[in-house]
Specification:
- With about 375 residues, the chain is α+β, with helices and mostly antiparallel strands.
- It folds into 2 domains: about 1-285, Aminopeptidase (3-Layer(aba) Sandwich); about 290-360, RNA polymerase II/Efflux pump adaptor protein, barrel-sandwich hybrid domain (OB fold (Dihydrolipoamide Acetyltransferase, E2P)).
- The chain is built from 8 helices and 20 strands.
- A 9-stranded mixed beta sheet has the order 1-2-4-3-7-11-9-10-12, with helices on both faces. Strands 8, 13, 15, 18 and 20 form a 5-stranded antiparallel beta sheet that branches. A 4-stranded antiparallel beta sheet has the order 17-16-14-19, with no helix packed on it.
- The longest helix has 18 residues, at about 45-60.
Length: about 375
Amino acid sequence: MNIETLELARATPGLRHSLQVHRYGQPGRGPKAAIQAALHADEVPALLVAQALHRQLAALDAAGRVLGEVVLVPYANPVGLAQQLLAQHQGRFDLRDGANFNRHVPDLTATVAAAVAGRLGADAAANVALVREALRTAAAGLSARNPVDDLKIQLLRLAIDADIVLDLHCDAQAVMHLYGLTPQSALCEELGALLGAQAILLATESGDSPFDEACSRPWFVLQEQQPQAALPLACFSTTVELRGEADTSHELAEQDAAALVDFLRRRGVLAPASAAAPLPAPRCQPTPLAGSEPIVAPGSGVVVFHKQPGEQVSAGERVADVVDVDTGECQPIHAVSAGVLYARVATRWATPGKRLAKIAGTTLARTGKLLSA
């Protein structure tokens, strides 16, 4: 195991940010996994899980149990970690321009498609190697305009050729849930069962190029563009939402890290355990991200929830109220679709149009940008 430091581009004289990268195993010897924590820098459970992961992976590496390569970035956003505004941590958006740290990650699909055009054939392994090399070359050719651009590019370079990419996040108040690519539903279900996920949201494109899709979606698009070629979806990439921000404890961190390690064992990145446990029974079935229902405030006021994260909601059921502080009028909000309420905001003051909660349903068919801002 070794640790390297990657310096980010500087925007201000005398101010510097850097990424710490932990590497386990040997590059090129077997499957590669890239794991990063808290690209939204205020999603702190991910930071604690990364520390537990480091301890477990370092012990496995010392024992020669890393069959492939694991790249762990224990804090993926030093820029966001440093952002404080009126004594409150602001880690989701760049205070420079308001941009979401986990949106508009460079999409390498077009560049790679041009590089491999006419070169993919019937040999799946050769095709995967060719596409991976084209992805690495495309990522190496990216240039940054500012430190946040550089952050996204350097993270992408670490992960773009990986077999497995795990982007660790959390929500405000939530149960464990995952986001993944629709054709990779089976792998999402396997990981979800190990973690005890209560919602798995799938899409072929969610909009605005979040990090996980920037890694996995090029393979899906190339498959569609060149159906004659033997090209598997060689990168499984997912966003893991580690419950809510307050769900931060040593016990949960060790539990979640052990589940991620178990997943890497099952994928051949790590040596199997001497007595492998059976896959736990799943707590949910995957649902389309397009069917996820955002519960939106109809006006400003005090939010009162009637449903807790993890509870089932029936179509038409009352989920929350918004109480007008001028008139005392109570505006009830009812769910349109049935499903599990998997996340909700931690604040209790609403403004018109504010997303208050999310329900993993199946009856809606939303289009456009499917993720929150």
